[in-house]
Amino acid sequence: MKLIDPSNRRLNYLRISITDRCNLRCQYCSPGNQIPILSHDEILSYEEILRLVRISVQLGISKIRITGGEPLVRKGVHGFIRELHQVDGICDVSLTTNGVLLKDNVDALIAAGLHRINISLDTLVPEKFKEITGVDAFDRVWEGIQKAHQAGLSPIKINTVVLRRFNDNELEDIARLSFTYPFHFRFIEYMPIGTSDRETADNLYTPEIKQMLTDRIGELIPIEHQIIDGPAERFRFAGAAGEVGFISAMSHHFCQTCNRLRLTASGQLRSCLLSDHQEDLKTPLRAGASDAVLSAIFLKAASMKGAQHGLTAGTLERVSGKMSSIGG
Ligand code: SAM
Asked: Given the CA of residue 22, which atom of ligand 1 is nearest to it?
């Protein structure tokens, strides 16, 4: 049996949140101390996750992204990545990080087999970074990005969540970095998830961003979409070393190509980031369930995957799960 959902999408991509803890407190993601931190026992151990990964591979999963929370705050992440690479059938392992601890981890990540990385960065202004994240760490993140680049991680994707009156005055500067660096700068529409303090009026959608960048910088030349790009639309400015891309979960549903499942830090399997439905894997896993029983839970999660998420541009609805524990 393979993970094929009712819309006939083949699910081969598992995003794994290895911790709900984060060393930043981004205003729109984990403001203040609102995030209840799961106790150590509530979080799946690496051994437990690896067992679930081996089961999922039998069902067709071949790509893994490690996320969180902030995955680099969890001890043992390098060893975990090494073990993931050794699972027969896993052909791609990547990591999403806020970059704060990246500089000191790059060498170990590469030694563990990591080839590519996504780094979240919403501003180029150090004071604003501190204001958004609660931590004065812009320089550390930038040094981490440079070190990852020098060490040969490629592609380096820089993910920027875009909001009006937040960082819309910086999008041009960020996009212009693609002339200097061979990175993929990707602008991500904000999604109404969890405890964020953001109003719908702050949302800024891809068509407006594209128009702004075209007016100020020049034509966005499309790059042919490859399967590894996921939902990102890719472009390049003439003469640029890198790319700009757009991930438009709200203004342009890309659900028809969604091939993902998500395993939360607490062992819940979610078939859609923007739906609260989840299947509990942890309880049966810890009660000694067989591989067959756990496989059946994966298949049930796939069978519950909606044709498309219910949120649209301008929506007032929210998804109650927290991005920091579901894993972005
Ligand atoms: N700590 C890691 C990081 O910063 O990349 C991984 C987890 S973080 C939750 C993953 C990504 O989700 C970040 O790029 C973050 O900006 C993004 N994110 C958080 N809340 C979001 C929201 N409501 N809409 C869109 N992206 C969001």
From this structure: 1
